[in-house]
Design goal:
Shape: globular
Strand order of the largest sheet: 4-7-5-6
Order of helices and strands: EEEEHEHEE
Number of helices: 2
Mean pLDDT: 85
Helix content: 10-25%
Structural class: alpha+beta
Number of strands: 7
Distance between the termini: 39 Å
Length: 160
C-alpha cells in the first residue's frame, strides 16, 4: 500500500524584502526592482548590484557575434561584435516575449577586458541608464571560435 500522507511544505513564505533601499534604486517597474548601491556597498558603475522581479523567468544562452547563417560579424572589431551580440539578444528575448526592459542580469565573457567599453556602448544603445541590470564581466582565454571576442548571456523576468 502506498503512503498518501500530505508532505506539502508549509514553510512561511512571507516577503521579508528590506525596502529601506528604495531610495537607492536605479529603476523600478511594476515587477522589476534594481538597486545600484545597497547599504554598505560602493555604487556600481554602469550596472545595478541587485535586481529582482516577480513573474516568468527567461534565460537566454550566451550570444556571440554570429549572423543568422552562423557567419562571424565584425571579426577583430569588438564594437561591431558587441552590436551584433545585442541584436541577437534582442531577437532571443523577443522570441520569449521579452525586451531589454525585462532583463535583470547580463553576464559578459570577453577575451580582453579592453573590449568592455565597446560592450557598454552597445548595451547603452538598447538599455536606458535607469534600467541597468545586475551584471558580471569575466575575461576568458578563448571562446568556441578564435575570431569571436565576446559572448553575453541574459536573464529576464516577464509578468505571469
Amino acid at each position: 500500500m502506498t503512503d498518501t500522507t500530505d508532505t506539502t511544505d508549509t514553510t512561511d513564505t512571507t516577503d521579508t524584502t528590506d525596502t529601506t533601499y528604495a531610495a537607492d534604486t536605479t529603476g523600478t517597474t511594476d515587477r522589476i526592482t534594481r538597486i545600484s548601491a545597497p547599504e554598505g556597498v560602493a555604487p556600481g558603475t554602469g550596472y545595478s548590484h541587485v535586481a529582482w522581479g516577480t513573474g516568468r523567468f527567461i534565460a537566454v544562452s550566451g550570444q556571440c557575434a554570429l549572423d543568422e547563417k552562423g557567419a562571424v560579424v565584425g571579426a577583430g572589431d569588438p564594437a561591431a561584435q558587441a552590436r551584433q551580440v545585442f541584436e541577437n539578444l534582442s531577437r532571443c528575448l523577443a522570441a520569449a516575449g521579452a525586451t531589454f526592459a525585462d532583463v535583470v542580469k547580463l553576464t559578459y565573457y570577453v577575451t580582453d577586458v579592453d573590449h568592455l567599453p565597446a560592450v557598454r556602448a552597445a548595451r547603452d544603445a538598447v538599455i536606458p541608464a535607469d534600467r541597468l541590470p545586475a551584471s558580471s564581466a569575466v575575461q576568458v582565454a578563448a571562446l568556441f571560435r578564435p575570431e569571436l571576442l565576446l559572448e553575453i548571456e541574459a536573464f529576464a523576468v516577464l509578468p505571469v
